[in-house]
Amino acid sequence: MATSRPTVKNDRSLYYDGVPRVPESHLAARRDQIIDAATARFAANGFQATGMADVIAASGLSAGAVYRYFRSKDELIAAIVERVVGEAAARFEVLLQQDPVPDPAGAVATAVGMVADVAGRGPVDLTRVAVQAWGEALRNPEVHTVVDRTYRAIRGFFVEVVRRGQEAGTIPADADPQHLAATMLSAVLGFLLQRLLLGDLDPAAYTAALRVPWVAPSSAATPGSAG
After folding, report:
1. What does the record give as the DNA-binding region (predicted)?
2. Residues 131, 134, 136, 140: is their CA dihedral positive or negative?
3. Which of 3, 4, 52, 137 has a beta carbon 3.0–4.6 Å from 147's, enabling a disulfide?
C-alpha cells in the first residue's frame, strides 16, 4: 500500500492526499488568542464568575473553535496559570545571572521589582491572575500541580542565592538555605498580595525596610538591655 506523502500546494500550508493541513503557527496563534481573551476576563471577574461563554465572546471565535483547543474551563484555567506562573519563574532566573549574586535582601528587591513590572505592563495585571491561582489550586488538582511545581522552582532560585552567599562568606554558614529561601519567597508574595489588597506599597520603600535589623536586632537595641 502506498504511503501518503505531503505535497506543497502553496507557500502557506501542506496537503495530505488533497486535504489541507493547518500550519502549526496558525494553531499556536489561535490558542494564544483564546488564552489572552480568557486571561483578561479572569483578571477582571475571577475564575468562578467567568464562564466559557464569556471567554468565547471575548475571543471572537466560535464555540467550536474554542472547544477544539480547550475541552473545559478547568483545562483553560490550568493553561493560563501555567503561562502566568511559568513566566514568573523564567524572570526569576535573572537572579542567578547577576554578578555578584545579590544578598537575600537584594534578591528580594529584584523579585519585588519584577512583580511591580509585571503588574504595570500591558492591559492586564497578571498578578491578579496569580493570586486567583492560589485559591484555584486548593480545589483543582491540575492547577495545584502547576502552582506547586512553579513556586518550588522559584524558591529553589532563592536557595541558590543563599548557598552562593554562604560560599562567598556573606551569609552565615549555619543558616538553613531552605528556610531562609522560604522567608524570602514569603516577602515577595506578601508584597504582591498587599499591593493588590491595600494598594499603598512602594516597591523601593518596601525592599529598603528588609534591611532594617528587625529580624535579629543587636543586643544594644534589645528592650531592657543595660545602657
Report:
1. 51-70
2. positive
3. 137
Neighbour count for residue 227 (Cβ, 10 Å): 3
- DSSP output for the chain: -PPP-EEE-SSS-EEETTEEE--HHHHHHHHHHHHHHHHHHHHHH-TTT--HHHHHHHHTS-HHHHHHH-SSHHHHHHHHHHHHHHHHHHHHGGGGGSSSPP-HHHHHHHHHHHHHHHHHSSSS-HHHHHHHHHHHHTT-HHHHHHHHHHHHHHHHHHHHHHHHHHHHTSS-TTS-HHHHHHHHHHHHHHHHHHHHHT----HHHHHHHTTSTTSS--GGGSTT---
Asked if residue 128 lies in contact with residue 196, where contact means CB atoms within 8 angstroms, the answer is: yes
Strands of the sheet with 6-8, listed across from one edge = 6-8, 14-16, 19-21
Using one digit for the tens of pLDDT, what is the confidence trace for 182-194? 999 999 999 999 9
The domains of the chain are located at: 77-210
| CATH superfamily placement of domain 77-210 | Tetracycline Repressor, domain 2 (1.10.357.10)
Q: How far is residue 28 CA from its own chain's centroid?
A: 20
> What's the pTM value of the predicted model, to 2 decimals?
0.77
Q: 8 and 14 in contact (C-beta within 8 Å)? A: yes
